[in-house]
Design a protein that fits this description.
735 residues, alpha+beta, Jelly Rolls, Pdz3 Domain, 4 domains, 6-stranded antiparallel sheet, Tail specific protease domain-containing protein, ClpP/crotonase-like_dom_sf, Tail-specific_protease, serine-type peptidase activity
Length: 735
């Protein structure tokens, strides 16, 4: 069941404005029972608002079943679910005193096992939180007085909220809510109310409740996503940071899903544009070497009057000296997103926050990804398909999967979801089988076996996994494919293999082929922390037979090159094993020892404050120096699917030398300095912020680096303990 460990904060922008104005105009308010509706004999209105999945729960006033007065709050599930639903409110002022207590009469009926009723008291930021989930109040019980009590810390408090909700299935009633400070009813006392320490906390609710999707609503929201992002990055007033643009999105969502006709939608945008003020008519910049630019033809297709469309067209090519929401890394050029709220309090995103996640991410890629043309599906389709998916992702699990799917469609190995949404904790498995698996010859092959203290069946190197937990490997692959950031087949196989070792069970039934015979085994899985890793190579370089120098690129450091180059220059050949990630930046340290003159090795595409969204190809960057004192023997570089990002960049630099040859299989095809992206709920991802190309403008993204001789491991080679890629490189060096 959903555990509301940290949940929504506020109803809407209207409530937010009301609270701020209220607090700044009334110093010592007195709140009555009627203000708060603590007896629940009136309809649910401000300051109460509904939370959770409104399609699975119904909340309202019951005038037939109540504890006292004329009514009680009733919350009931209306279909089978694993979500939550109820109501919540924020106190419009801080409270001074020693302690606060919240009590209520609660009745419950037919709350099934695993479901529970909750009363929540929350004091932000992180002063106190209890939603009684650990008490698992379920079953059927008549009216009971439930209490929560804690110390007050007024000088640290930014918000106080209470909520009543049902997680799972059943029915509950709430009546006679009472909040006291040091035993005194807050609705009857004067002098205990003080301002919040820092104002209202960063909101954890957008105020947008779940709503049904229709083709008309979907299209309105697609248009909104484009217009909101366009104004965010192109309008001079927004660039100055004058507006809370996330809050503007929530206002716009609320407006356009409520109105009945296009004229009303048009009127909303007319007012929005007028509120931002008049702008200059910016001319399109005349730039050379443009390779990609934002397509603004969508403005022409909007079903609004020409006045609105012309106001949008005027700012298509606005330029900035600085911008509130983005900048660029000095001397590098990848975008740096800034002033984006993380909404760390959001752990069960409502409809507004789900759409904010989509619109924020989509527009970041739209304007700042040098590889937008390589997404799959096309980037416009991601927005169109994403709107109804986000609307319908009403529980934590489906929202988490929608986030994974969204970022995976960039097809950039950098653009995974690098923080795990609440609904996906243990999605792939909390245990691991103590092995390494790689996809070889299209099969899942055990390539390493790690030590563990578990007894029972064991894998052997060379075993071919056919099924896990009664699912064929192909079936597992198909179930995960939509959620994997897979720029090419090599990364798809790499990431699939890593997920095959995980499970939520401590005993994992597997079918495999060993020595040509099918067998069944039950493999013990355990937490990763309990798996003893294989012995790692700690030697950065060593001599092999026939005077061949082997370099482990991940362990090599710049100082080692300087100290050892005199000896290295005498070897017959050099192997640089780049099937790893560099531990030092060696592009300009190692290449002078391989080249006799400066040589082109890479080009970049980038955008800027002056023309955001337009990507220009740079002149080639060179490595090497004019010298005769360099190594002239053969150099072989080893690569595979683990060669990614900086590793690929290093190989491109080394390839500039004519006596360097590359052996192995397709690399990850994900290069360019990364730019970090924060999404609601403290979720984080990245994008490749620079386009990386060979000097002849050949792409590397999704393709990988150029390979002179394709060499792939074989199942037989794994079983024999051979490194077939290294063998082929040594064969070349020994000729």
């Amino acid at each position: 069941m959903v555990n509301l460990m940290k949940i929504f904060i506020m109803k809407s922008n209207c409530l937010f404005i009301f609270l701020v104005v209220f607090l700044t105009t009334i110093a010592t308010p007195v709140f009555s029972q009627q203000n708060f509706n603590f007896s629940f004999d009136q309809p649910i209105t401000n300051p109460w608002f509904k939370i959770g999945d409104t399609t699975a729960f119904k909340s309202g006033i019951d005038h037939d079943t109540y504890y006292s007065a004329k009514g009680a709050l009733r919350i009931e599930s209306i279909k089978k679910n694993s979500a939550f639903g109820g109501i919540m409110m924020w106190l419009p002022s801080n409270l001074k005193g020693d302690s606060i207590e919240v009590s209520a009469m609660i009745k419950r009926e037919n709350i099934i096992s695993g479901s529970y009723v909750s009363m929540m008291l929350r004091i932000d930021p992180k002063v106190f939180f209890d939603n009684m989930a650990n008490r698992q109040m379920n079953g059927t019980k008549n009216w009971e007085n439930i209490k929560l009590k804690t110390k007050l810390v007024p000088n640290q408090t930014e918000g106080i909220s209470i909520a009543f909700f049902l997680s799972g299935e059943g029915k509950m009633w709430v009546d006679d809510v009472l909040i006291t400070v040091d035993g005194k009813d807050i609705t009857k006392e004067v002098g205990m109310f003080v301002p919040f320490a820092k104002g209202i906390s960063e909101p954890a609710s957008s105020g947008i409740s779940d709503f049904n999707t229709t083709p008309e609503i979907d299209q309105r929201l697609v248009d909104l996503g484009r217009i909101w992002g366009f104004l965010k990055y192109r309008h001079p007033a927004v660039a100055q940071g004058k507006y809370d643009w996330d809050q503007q999105l929530f206002k716009s969502i609320d407006a356009i899903i409520r109105v009945k006709d296009n004229k009303s939608v048009e009127a909303h945008y007319a007012m929005l544009l007028d509120s931002l003020g008049a702008t200059a008519n910016y001319a399109k910049p005349q730039l050379e070497n443009v390779v990609h630019e934002v397509d603004y033809s969508w403005i022409d297709g909007l079903s609004f009057n020409n006045d609105i469309k012309n106001k949008l067209r005027r700012i298509r090519y606005s330029s900035f000296d600085q911008h509130h929401y983005f900048d660029f890394a000095k001397g590098i050029g990848n975008v740096l997103f800034k002033n984006e709220k993380k909404y760390e309090n959001v752990f069960s995103a409502d409809a507004g926050f789900r759409l904010l996640a989509l619109f924020r991410f989509w527009n970041m890629i739209e304007y700042f990804s040098p590889y937008k043309h390589l997404t799959d599906p096309k980037w416009d389709a991601v927005l169109k398909n994403g709107v109804p998916e986000m609307i319908l992702s009403r529980d934590d699990r489906s929202y988490g999967l929608s986030l994974l799917k969204m970022v995976s469609q960039v097809k950039d190995a950098h653009t995974g979801l690098w923080s795990m949404p609440k609904g996906l904790i243990n999605y792939y498995g909390k245990y691991s089988m103590p092995v390494e698996i790689r996809m070889i010859e299209g099969k899942a092959v055990v390539t390493k076996v790690f030590d563990s203290e578990k007894s029972g069946d064991k894998f052997r190197i060379g075993d071919v996994l056919i099924s896990k937990e009664h699912k064929k490997i192909e079936e597992i692959r198909d179930s995960l494919w939509a959620y994997m950031s897979t720029p090419n087949e090599a990364v798809a196989n790499r990431d699939l293999a890593r997920k095959l070792v995980t499970s939520n069970s401590e005993i994992v039934p597997c079918e495999l082929v060993r020595d040509g015979r099918p067998i069944k085994v039950d493999i013990a899985a355990l937490p990763s922390s309990q798996i003893k890793p294989a012995t790692r190579d700690t030697v950065p370089f060593k001599m092999l037979d026939n005077n061949i120098l082997y370099i482990n690129h991940s362990l090599l450091r710049g100082k080692m090159i300087t100290v050892n180059m005199a000896d290295w220059s005498k070897v017959k050949g050099i192997v640089i094993d780049d099937r790893n990630y560099p531990g030092d930046f060696l592009v300009f340290k190692l290449t002078p020892l391989l080249l006799t003159k400066p040589t082109d090795f890479v080009r970049f595409t980038s955008t800027s404050l002056q023309y955001p969204g337009t990507f220009v190809m740079s002149s080639p960057l060179q490595v090497g120096e004019n010298t005769n004192d360099c190594y002239r023997g053969k150099v072989a570089i080893l690569v595979n699917e683990d060669t990614q990002s900086s590793a690929e960049y290093h190989v491109m630099a080394y390839q500039a030398a004519s006596h360097v040859k590359v052996f192995g299989s397709q690399t990850a095809g994900a290069d360019g300095n990364v730019s970090y992206i924060d999404l609601p709920g403290n979720q984080r991802t990245m994008l490749s912020g620079l386009g990386v190309y060979y000097p002849d403008q050949r792409e590397t993204q999704r393709v990988g680096i150029k390979i002179d001789q394709i060499v792939k491991p074989s199942i037989k080679g794994v079983q024999q303990g051979r490194d077939e890629v290294l063998e082929k490189a040594l064969e070349y060096l020994n000729k």
